[in-house]
Write a structure and sequence with these properties.
Layout: E1 11-12, H1 15-24, E2 27-34, E3 37-48, E4 51-58, H2 63-70, E5 74-82, E6 91-99, E7 101-103, H3 113-119, E8 134-141, E9 144-149
Antiparallel strand pairs: 1-9, 2-3, 2-5, 3-4, 4-8, 5-6, 6-9, 7-8
Length: about 150
């Protein structure tokens, strides 16, 4: 190992700290997979009772929808890094959640439009015609959860 490489020690967050970070944060990165091909997207989330909920806008040729279908275990990352003038003094934290992801049935009470609008920031669309965008709510049931900070 190169003796000139600098390291920063981290420590684990408690279960309560991890849940607080998930509850207080509004966005993160959802990572999906198809065999050996990975796909990660920034999304807004809602955390409740051991699950993360994400709302995706999907079109008929949606890459997101295709990857959700082929993903056995999704990974979701929430993090924050504090920038300082001294690289050695940077501070931050991260939470990584892993588990199966599934579409929430449209008749589920969690799918109510008013509830969804209260829980999520407005859906972002990029060059899609609004009448072609289908909104789908997904649940990532957390089976593995870890958090670290420095």
């Amino acid at each position: 190992m190169d003796p000139d490489v600098e390291f920063a020690y981290t420590e684990g967050l408690t279960e309560a700290e991890v849940e607080t970070r998930l509850r207080d944060a509004t966005d993160g990165v959802l990572a999906l997979a198809d065999d050996g091909d990975a796909y990660a997207i920034p999304v807004f989330h809602h955390y409740e009772d051991g699950s993360l909920y994400v709302r995706l806008g999907e079109t008929p040729d949606s890459r997101k929808a295709a990857y959700v279908e082929t993903t056995d275990t999704a990974t979701y990352v929430v993090y924050e890094a504090e920038t300082t003038s001294d690289d050695a003094e940077q501070h931050g934290w991260s939470v990584v959640a892993r588990g199966p992801i599934r579409a929430v049935p449209p008749d589920d009470p969690a799918y109510d439009a008013v509830t969804i609008n209260d829980r999520f920031a407005p859906i972002r669309v990029f060059d899609e015609a609004l009448d072609e965008v289908e909104l789908t709510l997904y649940e990532l049931r957390i089976e593995e959860l870890a958090g670290r900070s420095n």
